[in-house]
């Protein structure tokens, strides 16, 4: 097991290194001058030179990349006008819009995105899996057909439309939910924290539940036809025991993989959810950075997203290997 984890971690580090290189080249080595993009068309020459110095654009490309990696590992000094600013590891630079360190901005915004992702993903998993498994046990009935049809219909509607109408109806029109932004758990208490996120959890969670309903239904139907299930029934075990003890564990194993990947994607930033419900997380910050052409912030959010996905992939692989030890030999 230890060797399997080491292999997965080494592979993840390699993926992150390639991701950092690709991200850096995409934003800072494209056909457009990154300093000009940040500064705008009517940029003062002195301001342009200051941006180029801050991004090390006046250095050879190899030196730029080496400095960027060094900043991620041990930190570095960033020139800003006539002085240099200390940027601690992992250094992602400073925002040209707010003058704040990008790493600090991500740390401040991450609790919002993490709260949304975990809450919504748990609702999706629990509600969707329960509905899907219930439908699989009633295959061919009106209940099964209703679940399949409803999940397909709802998943065909773009999420941002569902989120927008949910917000307008329940927060604006009916005023059942607050709409004054995120309330930190450590500052305003659990009730205010839950209240500020509940509508976003419901919208994103129930929308995601439609996919889990289909996944769990298909997985359970496949398991119910396996030889070990027929053997268990032939031994005279009660139907409930066969289904819950033997079938459910086997059916939920693939769902665990899907859940891990979905959670990683949600941690990367729920842009529509944060924008519509006024929750200033990673997705909200990245969208603001696009509008202001703040490249250091964009690079930081992309690398945060990549890291979140890679970490969740490792956790998912480890959990799945515990559920099914055969994957360790693959």
From TrEMBL:
InterPro entries xrefs: BPD_transp_1_N, MetI-like, MetI-like_sf
Domain (ABC transmembrane type-1) ranges: 110-320
Principal localisation: membrane
Gene3D superfamilies: MetI-like
Residue runs in coiled coils: none
Membrane topology listed for this record: Multi-pass membrane protein
One annotated GO biological process: transmembrane transport
Any Pfam family hit: BPD_transp_1
CDD domains: TM_PBP2
UniProt-annotated location(s): Cell membrane
Sequence intervals crossing the membrane: 9-27, 112-135, 147-171, 191-210, 250-277, 297-323
Keywords, comma-separated and alphabetical: Cell membrane, Membrane, Transmembrane, Transmembrane helix, Transport
Cellular component annotations (GO), alphabetically ordered: plasma membrane
Family of the protein in this entry: Belongs to the binding-protein-dependent transport system permease family.
The protein's name in its UniProt record: ABC transporter, permease protein 1 (Cluster 5, nickel/peptides/opines)
Organism: uncultured Nocardioidaceae bacterium
